[in-house]
């Protein structure tokens, strides 16, 4: 049986940075499920389909060609063979991803792929519904949060570093809107399940959160291992 750690939480809580570090320490694969919904949104935008158009989306899902590769703990995502790992990181795609993620036609296909990957390898998977829906039997479930201001600040800094032209207020509003969307959709909404451990990362350094997760994994998930790097 392969092992799994599920890390869920709202946008900007630090899930991907932390999941990447935890997976590197354990020698597990890191799977960023948000990248998949982002790739679907990018495809819709490229095809001139409104990301809120359920029928339009359903029409492209059958032929959708999304692939994921893992090299040295680095995930790359490909859309029709092209590496779109960077192209999916814009504010337009973020908002679009939250729209497309509400549709069962999109989710079920993505979840199938996520479960297939988790069945074949030890994984740290981050997203919104990993512990609640994708991997309900995960060995450890973490719900990672932070204050809205802090999450918006982190995302703002990240976008600025990438040279994107954004204002703090626009980033904050987009994030609040996306959290609302993600928490209120009918299928697999963002939710903290009772068996998840909540970590508030507002005042914590990245490595402190990583250490906490490794500690919980060793002590609460019945995992015996000696060689954590
Ligand atoms: O990195 P950030 O937290 O901003 O977002 P992300 O993890 O890349 O996810 C982008 C969007 O995809 C989210 O706002 C969700 O709407 C959707 N998503 C989802 O519905 N389920 C997941 N397991 C992961 C992402």
UniProtKB/TrEMBL annotation:
GO molecular function: ATP binding; CMP kinase activity; dCMP kinase activity
Gene name, Swiss-Prot/TrEMBL: cmk_3
Entry protein name: Cytidylate kinase
Organism, scientific name: Ruminiclostridium hungatei
Top-level taxon of the source organism: Bacteria
All residue ranges annotated as the Cytidylate kinase domain in the record: 5-217
CC per GO annotation: cytosol
Keyword presence, Transmembrane helix: no
Family named by the database record: Belongs to the cytidylate kinase family. Type 1 subfamily.
Subcellular location: Cytoplasm
Record-listed ATP binding positions: 9-17
InterPro entries: Cytidylate_kin, Cytidylate_kinase_dom, P-loop_NTPase
């Amino acid at each position: 049986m392969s092992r799994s750690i599920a890390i869920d939480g709202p946008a900007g809580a630090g899930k991907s940075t932390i999941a990447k570090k935890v997976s590197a320490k354990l020698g597990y694969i890191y799977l960023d499920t948000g990248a998949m919904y982002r790739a679907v949104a990018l495809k819709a935008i490229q095809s001139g389909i409104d990301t809120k158009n359920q029928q339009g989306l359903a029409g492209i899902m059958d032929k959708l060609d999304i692939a994921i590769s893992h090299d040295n703990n680095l995930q790359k995502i490909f859309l029709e063979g092209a590496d779109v790992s960077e192209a999916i990181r814009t504010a337009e795609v973020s908002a679009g991803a939250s729209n497309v993620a509400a549709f069962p036609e999109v989710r079920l296909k993505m979840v199938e792929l996520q479960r297939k990957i988790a069945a074949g390898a030890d994984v740290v998977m981050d997203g919104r519904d990993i512990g609640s829906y994708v991997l309900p039997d995960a060995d450890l479930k973490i719900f990672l949060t932070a204050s809205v201001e802090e999450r918006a600040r982190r995302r703002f800094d990240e976008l600025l570093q990438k040279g994107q032209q954004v204002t703090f207020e626009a980033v904050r509003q987009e994030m609040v809107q996306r959290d609302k969307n993600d928490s209120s959709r009918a299928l697999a909404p963002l939710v903290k399940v009772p068996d998840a451990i909540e970590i508030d990362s507002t005042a914590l350094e990245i490595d402190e959160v990583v250490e906490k997760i490794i500690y919980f994994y060793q002590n609460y998930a019945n995992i015996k291992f000696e060689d954590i790097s």
